[in-house]
Design goal:
alpha+beta; three-stranded antiparallel beta sheet; DUF3107 domain-containing protein; 1 helix; two-stranded antiparallel ribbon; SH3 type barrels; DUF3107; 18% helix
Length: 79
């Protein structure tokens, strides 16, 4: 699942993927904001993404659905 953080006063967004479920990520972000601590998430490569509560402008949490990857539906022949 893809996550996007908008950081206050920074033009570029922070984008990463995680293996966690969307509900888990949203709950973790909400809990960190309510408790006043930093948001600490782990991406799909095992790296910690830590954002101070005061710096977060917005968060976009992607869906849990996966999309198939491949070229099987292109049709045509390889003759």
């Amino acid at each position: 699942m893809d996550i996007e953080f908008g950081i206050k006063n920074v033009a570029r967004t922070v984008n990463f993927s995680t293996n966690a479920k969307a509900d888990e990520v949203a709950a973790h972000i909400t809990q960190a904001l309510n408790e006043g601590g930093p948001i600490d998430l782990v991406d799909d490569k095992g790296r910690h993404i830590i954002v101070p509560k005061e710096s977060l402008g917005y968060a976009v949490v992607g869906s849990d659905t996966t999309h198939p990857v491949g070229f099987g539906a292109l049709g045509g022949s390889a003759d």
